[in-house]
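Hey team,

Filing this mostly as a record. A colleague (T.K.) asked me to run one chain through the structure pipeline before their review meeting, and I want the input and output archived in the tracker in case anyone asks later how it was produced. No errors, nothing strange. Just documentation.

Input sequence:
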Amino acid sequence: MDYLPLPGTPVEEIDTPAIIVDLDIAEANIKAMASFASENGVSMRPHMKTGKSPFWALKQIEAGAIGVCAAKVGEAEILAEGGVREILVTNQIVSSTKIRRLFGVASRAHVTVAVDNHDNVDDLSMAAQMFGIELGVILEVECGMNRAGVKPGEAAVALARTVENAPGLRFDGVMGYEGSAVYTEDFDLRKQQAMESINNLLAAADDIEGAGLEVKIISAGGTGTYDITGKVDRVTELQCGSYLFMDSKYLEVFGDHPHPFRSALTVQGTVTSKPAPGRTIADPGLKAISTDQGLPGVVSIEGAIVRSLSEEHCVMETQGPADELQPGDKISLLPTHSDTTINQHDYYYCVRNGLLETVVELAGRGRFM
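Output structure:
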């Protein structure tokens, strides 16, 4: 049973482990990215694999986003249920069960889906005819990630033609992700790597347009490359997601490179044990904070370093002021990767000026199907 705190509760009284979001910072991040997009003539379609909640999607749409991206049908379902009416599903949706669910979303929202093979197009076309719903389709182009996607050239042209000729489907354009560049710390190298990827995407668009088909959408972008991809004239929309809360990993990548974003999300924990001088234990373990991009940092406590996480324990090396921490004291941890941390929690505790303003259900938790 969940015992949720009331609005106005001081942040330090919120039970732990808990995701704390500073609303002022998150809203400033949303506004900053919206301003960048507007100034550069590109649309925002933020990726909700980060926020995983209609609450954040609607805030971003209110700030000017044309819609959002979802990684999976499960995320698209909760977004549509929450009132989001423009959704791009950025992964391939295969199997009859998932395709039926996709059209359930398409009955409530304008849906576009990524494809990279002909059989999937045939299955989507059959479902579109059966349900009587036109489905937007976008080609995922392989841009250097060695993941999903069709190669530029004849393969992309042939697949685009298949979509164009498929009853019930509408060919909208192409998408790609310069993910192999987003964590490169040197800006000039990051720009070079990103443009190599984006040029693959543009080449596919050229090939398709050369075959007489219209490419209305060229969708790309990640938080680490927003100010590179967002300045490419032919890119029509950005899919950045992590900027909403701004992972410490991206702050490390940006280094001294100017950007307007700050970290809005922390995991609040409670010190549970002080077994020896120099060693302090808190309650956010691996079930509360992810480590796929590295160990979290300790915020605003001088001399505290996270040395290891087990399932329920955070082991910190503490020196100086940090070694005065005692059981019951609160700490704040900054995740290196928000997406995989968020997926482990049931609620966001959204605060302003140190007081709880609202509790937001993390409706997309575990929606990886």
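Quick notes for T.K.: The longest helix spans residues 187-210. The domain at 23-247 is CATH 3.20.20.10 (TIM Barrel).
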